[in-house]
Amino acid sequence: xxxxxxxxxxxxxxxxxxENLALKGKLEKPLLLWxxxxxxxxxxxxxxxxxxxxxNLDEVAKKADVIWTCLTDETAVVPVIxxxxxxxxxxxxxxxxxxxxxxxxxxxxxxxxxxxxxxxxAPVFGDxxxxxxxxxxxxxxxxxxxxxxxxxxxxxxxxRAVVNLxxxxxxQASLLKFIGNVLIMTSIETTAEMCTFAEKTNxxxxxxxxxxxxxxxxxxxxxxxxxxxxGEYTKDHVGISVSHALxxxxxxxxxxxxxxxxxxxxxxxxxxxxxxxEHSGPSTSLLGVYGAVRKESGLPYENQ
Length: 304
Description:
52% helix
């Protein structure tokens, strides 16, 4: 029997994930699409015959065999899960790619499993452009048999790589995403500092980009350096915004504080995120860290 997939959440990340799932997932039925702002789902689905909009979550609960959520935060997840679990979900598979804490992930998983369904946490690494091109890294966690059900739709479909945590609690995937964000933010901070140092010494940031291309050609540092030296960091709506980034970093710092973990370099990056927000507003790119480092070092925020 052909599975009916539904995807809930058509934000910047969900738009790319749902598109790749519909176009490359070899689904036998059109992907059901739902978004809190109905018009956005309609606009997205209009571009692809493989997508069809469902206006009502009650209908999603009745029709879908696999329900994949990608929502903003915990406050967005709660009412959606509440409404879905008001129905008979026996045997259905819930997959969640929302940015939520490990504790909350485990709470949702317990509710779903107690209702007779299966649950897989599947947080992702990457920005909206990577979601669009299917270049995300996906971290699935949950019962082995549940993760195995969704694996065919991850690598080569919505992502380029999978960090498989099958057999572990779903919350472990969310925790690994949090810890991975430390790598992302400190990499951005390092790249910004190196480019600024090169500018201050008259070497030129373009030579830092050459160094990254030679030493770490497939690292994110290359992309960060390109966007920084090209001035893209000063633009609104380029990748992830500082306001979105700060919402996540506050959660991560909360976990670090609760566990007594020192994250000094991460805290420096977060401070520069806050400086970028103050300078250019909440919708500017998180790569505005570069502008903040430049300004702190006596250079103009903008490099163009």
